[in-house]
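Invent a record, attention on tokens:
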Amino acid sequence: MRGILISTDIKTNNMDFLDPDKKRKHQRRLYIGYTLIGIAIFMTSAILVLQSYGFDFNRKTGEVIQNGLIFADAAPEAAKIYLNGKDVGTTDKRLTVPAGPYKIELKRDGYRTWTRSFNLEGSTIERLVYPFLFPTKITPKDQKTYASAPAFSTQSLDRKWLLVLQPGSMTNFDVFDSGDPTVAVKTISLPSSVLTPTTLNQGYELVEWSSDNRHVILKHIYGNAYEYIVLDRDTPQSSINVNKLLNVNPTTVTMRDKKFDKLYLYDGTTKKLSFVDTKEKNIQPVLSNVLSYKAYAEKVILYAASDEKDPTKAMVKIKDGDKQFLIRSGLSSDTYLLDYAKFDDHFYAAVGVNSQGKVYIYKDPANDPSTDPKASPSLFTTLIIQDPKFISFSANARFIMAQSGKKFALYDAETVRRTYYESSLNIPVEYKALWMDGHRIVVNNDNKVVVFDYDGINQQTLVPIIPGSRAYFDREYNRLYTLAPTTNDASKTSLTRSNLKITIQN
């Protein structure tokens, strides 16, 4: 019986399938099902696309809103985040919030509040991962005291070694380990035979440090003359006088690829740039008609040169190994400011022309498809600033800064934004502001160390400092070192250290 029933069911189902009406109904059901599935897929895809652009639904009002992201972090310690006055958690956090105006505050007990107001656009990201909170109270302590103010000091590229010239001497330097204040100060002596004997007033200017953080080029100035010294911090008896060693009198000496024994020699009279390996002492010509130059890495030189066809005009070129690329021509100025750096896999060339009040910026100028030896690349962007005196890249190369006294113009390569502002500080026209790190600028203002963000906000006055000196930070920015009046005798000068992280020992 069971076998008969099964046979009958199969037969009936086959007959239903052959019935035209039932077949049409079955097909309609299939089409409706496929259509509903398609609509669901379309709606899901649309929602995902909209969400990828920051769109969302306000579940209270039913309105469609567009969100943005805020990434917030802080140093030297974590801080609480207040967004438009509301506590939204602790730093190192991602916030998904509707587009609109915001004021963010980062707070921690014992530290000064960091704040910024901004307008968050839909589907955009505001990366506030760089804020630095300085202690509310900073108390300098004397590291070493001097009877009078040292005339020169400098710090290695890795921010570990501090060199301070002892007062009354041109050969004795104190060496400090900025990362460990418990390490005893070491005194090194430059052999007196390295310097040209003189009774004239003399001093040092910093040229640059080698990437080995051991060698540094110093410009020794005596009267109206000068010479270049390569000081070996570790083995001072190995220091050399470039002028004496090579029997030259260059206007400028710089390193190639930050190597202390690979030097560029520039003669401002002949306008010739040469290269020399100090071990081999074989001087090789590199460029002629040079007005200004900036060396980058091993093979790249960004330079301004007088035009051979019209000596009253100048052109800017890039020499990359054996190849040369024209950047800009037809320039006329007393000063050409040049800098070159790499950020996020792209190269940027900055060309400042003070007579035009402009800084021209080129992106990947040697890789521009339109670039050939006779054609200049496309101009990427321009900073407008009257009579620019200095241009520089931030420590992370994200920002290009042009400065003229208290006036600043910056380009942000990450957000593709330009910023202009005039500081309220008393900054002389010829004073060069320096980068504290990748996002902050530090100046000596009225004998106080002052730090502010790249766009001029969050200005903080920190500690005293003597005129003409600079502020030095250790590797982790836990300590700040300055030459300043001693803490208990203003007639003397000390190298002072100040904790910037409350939880570390001084």
In short: The first helix runs from residue 2 to 18.
